[in-house]
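Quick start: read one record
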Amino acid sequence: MQNKRIKQEPLKKGVSDQSSAVLLYGGTSFNKKLTERSVNASLPPNLNLSLRISFADIKYATKNFDAKFLVGEGGFGKVYKGTLRSGMKVAVKRSEPGHGQGLKEFETEIIILSQIRHRHLVSLIGYCDEESELILVYEFMEKGTLRDQLYHSNGNPERSSSRFELSWKQRLEICIGAARGLHYLHTGPAGGIIHHDVKSTNILLNENYVAKVGDFGLSKSGLSDPDHFTMGVKGSFGYLDPEYFKTLRFTEKSDVYSFGVVLLEVLCARPAVDNSLLREEASLAEWGMLWQRKGQLEKIIDPLLHGKIKASSLKKFAEISEKCLKAKAAERPDMHEVLWDLTYALQLQEITIDREPHEDSSTNTSLELQLPVICHLPSTRTLIEEEDAQIKEDDGSNTTACEV
């Protein structure tokens, strides 16, 4: 089941998936009408007008929205691959009248993305608001969404023989990249931005599988909204902080909870919610934590990872997920701690232990779990400064040095 975004509407019994297409560059409020506005209505003065792109240029880039360039479709409308006159490849998200992205979300995304730039956040190239159009133009992410890479693009977790299989190391690097992006949002110079809709379809991958967080339509700034209070429930099924339902206060720790669900998705390669399963298995967060409490999380991991994850790395990763999914927000770590632990889990995976000829794998697994690891990780300030400065993309494989 695709995860739908909820916005100021009660949950309805029998709501089904309306689209099995690839969800790129964010979703939208489900069953929500497009905010009406006249052609002559003006956008807020704090929007970056230098990012405006003419409708004529967008039609040129997409060959007048030719169907052969369609790369995604969902409740938000349609996403097209395009090429600007400059030769830059872009993703064009076009809201459709009646059910697409609302004006408020459209404005929020422009305001936030015009203030921030980071190699683990999807870059906004421009926007168009001509002729009642609401169009956002992003850098093109060649490998689509994390969800698409974890299981088949139609939402079916059955394996696709033609799909590139992500190794455990690659999955960890993707998680680290996404964590860096969220950490920057929470603590960066733009000031306390809460994403509000962290999920696997909002983590996109470029041609080198470098992760970038996208879709900021529901994002909130902590500076402008210190209590993070919102009327109505917003977010996506399966990812919402349980404490949020009680208080309607969304904080950085709510993003952390959602990211914990993403971590289990990465490990288990199944949706956050799957109503085709037994009731106790439908919620990935509940099902995963049930097996974690038993100390047997390895029994429900992606079959493709069996025998390919070091016991110590899996143990650390499971601990991170469990901490993120604590019922009480105060007991969850911040994104800097999550980033620290994920880097540690990657280092544990990469540790090479010299084996004697007579030693078998079980002996080495036991030894591996007993080895103390001293990692030199950067401070919070260093992480912010480093990521803010390094806008140029790399292959996402750089890791901190580790001594054993």
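The chain has a mean pLDDT of 75.
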